Amino acid sequence: MLFSYNWLKQYIEYKITPKELANILNMYLFEVEGIEEKNSDYIFNINILSNRADCLSHQGIAREINAILGFQGKIEKIATKKELKNEFTLKTKSGKSEIEIEKGAKCCSFSVISKVKINESPKWLKDYLLSLGQKSINNLVDLSNFVILDSGQPLHIFDFDKLKKGKSNKVKLFIREAKNKEKVKILGGKEYELNKNDLVVADLEGPVDIAGIKGGEETAISQNTNHILILSANFDAKKIYNTSKKFNLVTDASIIFSHNISAGFSLLGLEQLVNLILKEAGGELEQVFFEEKNKDLLKYREHIIIRLNKISSILGKEINEETFNKAMYYLNIKTKKEKTGIFKVNPPFYREDLNIEEDIIEEVGRLYGYNNISLVAPKISPKRAELNENLEWRSFISRFLLNQGFDEVYNYSLIEQIASYEIINPLSRKRRFLREDLIHGLIENTKFNQSYFDEFKIFEFGHIFKRESVLIEEEKIGALIFSKKEKITDLLLEIRGILDGLFEAMGFDNEDYVISHKDDILSIKVNEQEIGFLGAVSNQDNGLKKGNISFFEIDIAMLIKYIDYEREFEEPPKFPAIDRDISLFTYHGVKITNILSVIQEIGGKLVEDVNLFDVYQSPDSDKKSLAFHIIYRDKNKTLTDKEVNVLHNKIEKELKKRLKVEIR
Description:
Blueprint (H helix, E strand, L loop, with lengths): L1 E3 H5 L8 H11 L2 E8 L2 E7 L10 H14 L25 E5 L3 E10 L8 H9 L7 H13 L3 E5 L11 E7 L4 E4 L5 E4 L4 E4 L4 E4 L3 E2 L11 E9 L1 H11 L4 H7 L6 H16 L3 E6 L14 E4 H8 L5 H10 L3 E6 L2 E5 L10 H12 L20 H15 L3 E2 L5 E2 L17 E2 L4 H11 L5 E13 L3 E13 L4 H18 L7 E6 L2 E6 L2 E9 L1 H4 L5 E8 H6 L16 E9 L5 H12 L3 E11 L6 E9 L8 H19 L2 E2 L1
Protein name: Phenylalanine--tRNA ligase beta subunit
Organism: Candidatus Roizmanbacteria bacterium GW2011_GWA2_32_13
Family: Belongs to the phenylalanyl-tRNA synthetase beta subunit family. Type 1 subfamily.
């Protein structure tokens, strides 16, 4: 935001050069992004923090500079200039106008002035506005713009005679939400179609202003205007921001209201503009309206309890009572000592950023100067860092999948597809919903990469969001295999095998988890609790040009919860193993688990491991081809081929006898 050095000088209680001013701003307040010398003035471009709406004006910046200089002993008393004292002296005066707040404003006040004379602005006013790049229009418009830049309170001037009258020739204004498809033409002639999310100022016939952003053309003042209504209000910051962003309509007023300026400024701004108009444009004060209770908006805010030892602890510097009181005085914060080392403080109305003890401590540190606080090494006792089990297992899963040939991908948590939770102010229309799973993101990755690769494996760690009674955020691991060559059944077996391998590596036994059918996918359960799902989809169903996919998604927290951290170590085998394969045909109804049971039963302790490594079934046949790899080992001796062949043949005979399979 731009500020004039000459303008600021009239409020600063100490003679200060532009260079000194820039240094103070940078060290104690805000970053100065640039200084430009312009017509015997210096224009400062200052980056105001979003929570300091009180500094979006020349008075606000001057108030802070005075506090800093005062703390440094260069100013004896707190701001003595009338404008910085925040005194409100206007008295109510009845008239022929009234206003009603239906929704969207904390407070509202207005004044009606008759017999005003619209002329060219005086030189001092032109110079101030021109220094900040604003062209002079006429004395009324210029004075309104001056007050915004000076006090930080946006106001709007209506041509009173253009406002629609009701009974007894009275003007009635409403601050309300716009009706759907309600239209208003603003200054400059552009028309906007509004809805209930927008605020308007309306008369008896309809909107005359997009509230807090820009006035309407139909009620704008002109060279023939001599009867005006000045409106000063404090509008809902969220609504002003959303409307300004929606229409890309950014004004000084919309910026200030979007920063949630204190409502107390609406009274001070009105009084300042009324007095300036009466002085520079003449006229008679016909009516002044404000609710008496709104004067409370200028009172000090709720108290905060402050402990001196807490200040010293956080800042790393001993702060005594004298230093603390001095800082509070120049910041215009009321202080009352409760007992030794404990104070009750009340921030002024305009410091809405001061709400907790730490906020006050930050102010003390800022005025004291962080550059004046010596560096002190933290007093800590070195100790071994505790192991984070979740991070360790997350890293373990990642390494396991990488070793299986997977690549890790990262996707946004915000997606385009409609989901349960929609972001109120999305940065992009394509990123406005919170995702509910990882798999859809992995499929989108696949669609993008299918033109470059015939097959690949990808996985992602990420957070998903579920709608229950409240928003639930969970961390998941999702993995996907894509292939243009492999059959969908082969891909399903491959991802199932990888999942089995992961569970085994994490210490789960086969009986610890169950993978079973649930709707169109396979459910993964541990201890009868569902922790994820497993599935496969052909290219006809997944939107891919060519190729099939298989995938799984697991809740990481639930998976880790059921891990048995105790490990059993086995002595490496002393005797070699012998491998054999069984290839067979089965028919509909024969389960793989039944085949495995027969192999384990007949083979007994000599069967160390069995793996299914091939499955094929013709689409038009009930016959299924299966192939199993069996590892034989005796822990007490070396098996001979003859012994293994006898046992292997016995297993084949039992399979044919019990399950009616056909050995290939």
